[in-house]
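Shift notes (night). Ran Plasminogen receptor, C-terminal lysine transmembrane protein while the centrifuge was going.
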Amino acid sequence: MGFLLSKSMDANFKKQQEFMLHNARLQMERQIMMQNQMRERQMAMQIAWSREFLKYFGTFFTVATVGLTVGAMKRKKPALMAPLVPLGFIFAYQMDSAYGTLIYRMRDEAQNIMTSEPDRLDLPHGTPTFNSIEKARRAKSTLTSFLEE
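Came back to this:
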């Protein structure tokens, strides 16, 4: 009788373990998907910001180019066009960021860094562990309880 009860409990225990593993996997997959969607939304917002900034900067660049060119021609001083060089670089960067391949080049470089230079990605004091977080929490909680007295 005890053997049958034990066998039934073992079967139930295994089913419960499988159920818990399945739920943990589902939760992990959902969390990964949620984090990826949040990352995609943040990147879309950054690209949208770049495109919006480009509209304003492009307008400024156009007005500055026309104004400086006209001023240089009227005063016969080509040096007045010197500010167009750095402004042109900024405009080209913003154009590349908003509509060009900058994001792809950045991703490729990030993959290269992760592959060939992983030591550059190390955090100071290493990756936080449960023990390090718990130690810091305890230190803070004893400090606050000491301050309360």
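The chain is about 85% helix and 0% strand. Residues 2-75 form the longest helix (74 residues).
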